[in-house]
Amino acid sequence: MSYLFSKQGQINFAPGEDEDAIMEAALEAGAEDIETADDGSILVIASEDSFDAVKEALEAAGHKADHAEVAMVASLEVALDAV
């Protein structure tokens, strides 16, 4: 079943961090995507291969992540109805 998942680097920042500065540093370092949640938290997504470089570049730019890991992320999401 591992074909339904892919390894993905995820670097999370708390609400209130400077989104533009994180986005600029992350994209320059090779991040694949940046997502901002409704609560203002920021998720930087990187490939498994570029995870360490992106994380180190963000730290060098003065951004401290709340959490950073390479995780197995589902390729397909299914919404469930409440019963």
In short:
The protein has 83 residues and is of the alpha+beta class. The chain has two helices and four strands.
Description:
It is a single chain. By secondary structure, the protein is of the alpha+beta class. It has two helices and four strands. The protein has a four-stranded antiparallel β-sheet, covered by helices on one side. Helix 1 (19-29) packs across helix 2. The model has no long low-confidence stretch (mean pLDDT 93).
Low-confidence stretches: none
What is the element string, with H for helices and E for strands? EHEEHE
Class of secondary structure makeup: alpha+beta
Would you count the extended β strands for me?
4
Mean pLDDT: 93
Determine the N-to-C terminus distance.
27 Å
Radius of gyration: 14 Å
Outline the biggest β-sheet: 4 strands, antiparallel
Strand content: 25-35%
Largest sheet, spatial ordering of strands: 2-3-1-4
Shape estimate = globular
The DSSP helix count reads: 2
Helix content: 25-40%
